[in-house]
Amino acid sequence: MSMTQFAYRTLKTIGLTEGYPEYEALSGFSRPEGTLRCCTYSPDGRYFAYASNENVTLVDANTGLVHLTLPTPAVHELEFSPRGNFITTWERPSKLEDGNAAKNLKVWRTENGELAVSFVQKAVSASSIQYTYDEKYYARATTNEIAFYETANMNTVWQHLRVEGVTEFQLSPGENYHVAVFVPEKQGHPAKAAVYAVPDFSAPLMQKAFFKADKIQFNWNNAGTAVLFLSQTEVDKTGKNYYGETNLYLMNVTANVDARVTLGIIVISAYITFEGF
Fold first, then answer.
1. pLDDT averaged over the chain?
2. Is 217 found in the same domain as 106?
3. Residue 112 and residue 173 in one domain
4. Contacts of 224 by beta carbon, 8 Å cutoff, 6+ apart
5. Among residues 17, 126, 122, 141, which one has the least CA distance to residue 81?
6. Which of 147, 196, 230, 255 has the fewest CB within 10 Å, making it most exposed?
7. pTM value?
8. Are 100 and 211 members of one domain?
9. Which pLDDT score, from 0 to 100, does residue 233 have?
10. Residues 6 or more apart in contact with residue 176 via CB below 8 angstroms
11. What are phi and psi of 82, to 5 degrees?
């Protein structure tokens, strides 16, 4: 059996292919046919999931056999938790017969297909549910706050991080429970980026205010102690960059480093871990 594998999706089918040295179709996988909008692997490589018009199918990635089927139609986005114990599905917003919004963001347990929790989510994103590295907690953004939950009690808010105007956040990937948040500039007020320890939200560990920032990308180091903020404007008023003006900032909560990184025009950033950072 190959140690590597890759998936491909066309307009009408999905396939799984073993890597070196076979480079052959995974024998146990029955290729689905029809409208297949999305597919993804779990981070640990245990599962492969794909969405059809009728349902979501989870496959054992080693054998290609169906593990279970989730009874949720017309899913447009899928995302697994870090250890593959949960999968999030997102459907287009819709209304129930009584006129209330249907809960279209759903979290399922991959062990048995149980629906663990569901929310109303207008934005197109299954990644709006984020987990700590050990899946002990998860979080999602609501109006002016980040709500934290324990996965042992997924329907009840455990802690609130109140941040006026917050639009983006990202949990750290390592054993250090941290969360980075972003508030875009508005009506002459600067944008803000900050890092908090979870669950001590009394004050940020580090924060920074700056202009020329409509949106942001976060890149954490593996330990969850330092994060790069790549800020971007929709339009570069200098005309130097088609993608808008970009700036890169670094915050390291253990080394107490808060700095702007000057590199010229930046399109993408990635965190490379160095000793001490």
1. 89
2. no
3. no
4. 133, 172, 173, 174, 175, 176, 177, 178
5. 126
6. 255
7. 0.87
8. no
9. 81
10. 223, 224, 225
11. -55, -35
